[in-house]
Design a protein that fits this description.
mainly alpha, Serine Threonine Protein Phosphatase 5, Tetratricopeptide repeat
Length: about 170
């Protein structure tokens, strides 16, 4: 009798485990269906947002292209696209972003044609023309850093001139 009872208990536990496994797999399948539906819904919403963004900000497409080109190391292309974005935006957004991007291109350490003076001028222009820009504080930091670099270059030039004067 003891053996029969133990076998029935095992069968009961086996069936219960099977039901739990079946219930869990059913929930997992339902989760996949919900994710797919939400994924399609997400894609539709993202397309609407992108269309709104393009309509709302003239030049934003050129600006995105400029940022992509800069990340790829195409600094000349990035400058050209940023200039197009600035021309289309005028004194509206994303003109501030276009100036900021151009400033970054001229300051970029990998840019063989980097020009800290030009970068400094662009960041100062951003501060003058877009004082309320969310990028204004970052531009101020860049102005400070680039100002120190330009001052140290001037000091180096003066030291070299002194050395030449002493050598004569």
């Amino acid at each position: 009798m003891g053996r029969e009872h133990a076998g029935t208990g095992k069968l009961f536990h086996f069936c219960a485990a099977g039901l739990v496994a079946l219930a869990l797999s059913g929930c997992a399948l339902l989760g996949d269906v919900v994710r797919v539906e939400n994924g399609d819904e997400y894609k539709k919403e993202r397309v609407k947002e992108e269309k709104k963004e393009v309509r709302a900000k003239p030049g934003s497409g050129h600006l995105q292209q400029a940022k992509r080109l800069m990340s790829e190391g195409n600094y000349e292309g990035s400058l050209k696209e940023s200039q197009k974005a600035l021309a289309l935006a005028g004194r509206n957004a994303p003109g501030d972003e276009a100036l900021f991007t151009m400033g970054l291109v001229y300051a970029h350490y990998k840019n063989p044609r980097k020009d800290f003076k030009q970068s400094l001028d662009l960041f100062n222009k951003l501060l003058r023309e877009y004082p309320q820009s969310p990028l204004a504080e970052q531009a101020r930091v860049w102005v400070g850093v680039l100002g120190v670099i330009e001052q140290s270059k001037q000091v180096d030039i003066e030291i070299e001139e002194m050395k030449k004067g002493l050598a004569k």
